[in-house]
UniProtKB/TrEMBL annotation:
Protein name, per record: Triokinase/FMN cyclase
Catalytic activity: dihydroxyacetone + ATP = dihydroxyacetone phosphate + ADP + H(+); FAD = riboflavin cyclic-4',5'-phosphate + AMP + H(+); D-glyceraldehyde + ATP = D-glyceraldehyde 3-phosphate + ADP + H(+)
Binding locations of substrate: G55, S56, G57, H58, K108, D113
BP terms from Gene Ontology: glycerol catabolic process
Species of provenance: Toxostoma redivivum
Keywords noted in UniProt: ATP-binding, Cobalt, FAD, Flavoprotein, Kinase, Lyase, Magnesium, Manganese, Metal-binding, Multifunctional enzyme, Nucleotide-binding, Phosphoprotein, Transferase
Length: 570
């Protein structure tokens, strides 16, 4: 039996409604019944009240659609079970006693729902209430629907919205009934699923093979029209729309080029939002290609089937009046609050911002130091390429084994950059240009960390020269890495080698210091610090998730940094 996060299996429908009401000040439970009503019932005096409902397990339907501009109340059954006649009757009485000018029951086309709502309606009429019932059957799955007719699925939510907007505007019961029946006739829905669903405490109602998807299944896991191999999202959407609009299918929706529709892309409960976005884009593209105008598109979870990993598409043919009713304001929590306007894949993109022109001297100006810079960079690149396997090996124990590849990629990028142009000799420009190369080409968090270090060091060197400026630049680079990377010395990262070298470079600030001696000491300090990471517990980076006893090697990032410093300062 699949795992579920419930308190008790028997109480899950009540608990879900109680949670919804607890978190929504606009809702109230009806004492002794699984009925939720608008908090402001007196506001419906003189207006038509709208009641809907059905089994639980389709959340946010139906209680999520209660509010000003949508439903007045909802009657819920147990999971996938019709609500009781007694509770439906109690809901009808509650709104009648609040002074409603007529009551419309909006019911999905299932035998149990029709029977129970119908029985309650007859009893309420006997008590003198003005009650009507509209049965919604929007399923386009079956080419030859049986005697039971088309199932009521996600399109019902659009009917709630249309009816709710009319009732809020003061329309009569006759007018609402007429317009809702007309809207339901020009609407169709089709589901597609990758997985079954399971009622809490029970096994899944059916099985789908790893490589199968099912077309046209119902919101309770009832069988669809056919199983097929899993298709890419765009092909799956094409298949769905073709089936929904196929004239040989008795339950099809007639779509002709130039028609305007409202599209609902509904998550059946267990599809990721990422996949839902992909499906939505494919649906808009596919409809546009057929010359259909998508007046509005709604994407989200509107009527689910517990945790079913699937999607349904609903299309309603609309005119200006229907679009206005869809756009009308509502306080219902499950109705999306988005900017009203058509859906299109042709939306103009915001132009990319232009980079500010480089200031100061042209960075390609060649100075007497250019050959020296090339020589040093070539040495750094050769060192990193020679160490590729060693760094990968060190990284296997603590990361994903790609530290050598990442540094080799950086070396190759620098070599290609030097072949394309002579590197600038001015230190600030050189470091800034190297930062750009590494940010674009190196990848991984190392690329960003080196980029941060070099960018901050370059800033620090602007307009400064002399040995102490290099010590300041090193400190500025380390500070930037710490600010964004979160590591500190002793956390077993590349920072350990850099920090040790920086401490030694502080010697450059002493008057009369021998720069060569200080640089040699910095390289030695970096190498010793890299070796010392062997005995440290990782405090940052990916290795920090691994138990320290498994990390018997030095940190690959620290080893790489020590090697780079050694190559630069040779």
């Amino acid at each position: 039996v699949p795992k579920k996060l419930v308190t008790t299996v028997s109480g899950c429908a009540d608990d879900a409604l109680a949670g919804l009401v607890a978190c929504n000040p606009g809702l109230r439970l009806l004492q002794g019944h699984r009925v939720v009503l608008r908090d402001d019932l007196p506001a419906i005096r003189g207006r038509v009240a709208l009641l809907s409902g059905g089994g639980s397990g389709h959340e946010p339907a139906h209680a999520g659609y209660i509010g000003k501009g949508m439903l007045t109340g909802v009657v819920a059954g147990a999971v996938f079970a019709s609500p009781s006649v007694g509770s439906i009757l109690a809901a009808i009485r509650a709104v009648a006693q609040a002074g409603a000018a007529g009551i419309l029951l909006i019911v999905k086309n299932y035998t149990g729902d029709r029977l129970n709502f119908g029985m309650a309606l007859e009893r309420a009429r006997a008590e003198g209430a003005d009650v009507r019932m509209v049965v919604v059957g929007d399923d386009c799955a079956f080419a030859k629907p049986g005697k039971a007719g088309r199932r009521g699925i996600c399109g019902t939510v659009l009917i709630h919205k249309v009816a709710g907007a009319l009732a809020e505007a003061g329309a009569s019961l006759d007018e609402i009934e007429k317009k809702v029946i007309a809207a339901a006739k020009v609407m169709g829905t089709l589901g597609l699923s990758l997985s079954p669903c399971s009622i809490p405490g029970s096994k899944p109602s059916f099985q789908l093979a790893e490589d199968e998807m099912e077309l046209g299944l119902g919101i309770h896991g009832e069988a669809g029209v056919r199983r097929m191999k899993v298709l890419p999202a765009d092909k799956a959407v094409e298949t769905m729309l073709k089936h929904m609009t196929d004239p040989s299918n008795a339950s099809h929706l007639s779509l002709t080029p130039g028609s305007s529709v409202v599209l609902v892309v509904n998550n059946l409960g267990g599809l990721s939002c990422l996949e839902l976005g992909i499906v939505a884009g494919a649906a808009v593209r596919c409809l546009e290609n057929r010359g259909i105008r998508i007046a509005r598109a709604l994407v989200g979870s509107f009527m689910t089937a517990l945790e079913m990993a699937g999607v349904s598409l609903t299309l309603m043919l609309v005119d200006e009046e229907l679009v206005r009713l869809i756009d009308a304001k509502t306080t219902a929590m499950a109705w999306p609050n988005i900017v009203a306007g058509p859906a299109t894949t042709q939306r103009e993109e915001v132009p990319a911002p232009k980079e500010a022109p480089r200031k100061l001297q042209d960075e390609t100006r060649i100075g007497p130091g250019t050959a020296r810079v090339q020589q040093v960079l070539q040495r750094v690149c050769s060192t990193l390429l020679d160490m590729q396997d060693k760094l990968n090996e060190l990284d296997r124990g603590a990361g994903d084994g790609d530290c050598g590849h990442t540094h080799a990629r950086a070396a190759q990028a620098i070599q290609a950059w030097m072949r394309s142009r002579p590197p600038p000799a001015a230190p600030a420009q050189l470091l800034s240009a190297l930062a750009d190369v590494l940010l674009e080409q190196m990848g991984g968090s190392s690329g960003v960390l080196y980029g941060l270090f070099l960018t901050a060091a370059a800033q620090s060197l602007h307009g400064h020269s002399g040995s102490p400026a290099w010590a300041d630049a090193m400190d500025a680079g380390i500070k930037a890495m710490q600010r964004y990377g979160g590591a500190a010395p002793g956390d077993r990262t590349m920072l350990d080698s850099l920090f040790a070298a920086a401490q030694a470079l502080h010697g450059l600030r002493s008057p009369g210091a021998d720069p060569l001696q200080v640089l040699a000491a910095a390289v030695q300090s970096a190498e010793a610090a890299a070796e010392a990471t062997r005995h440290m517990e990782a405090g940052a980076g990916r290795a920090s998730y691994i138990h320290s006893s498994r990390l018997e090697q030095p940190d690959p990032g620290a080893v790489a940094v020590a090697a780079v410093l050694g190559a630069v300062l040779q």
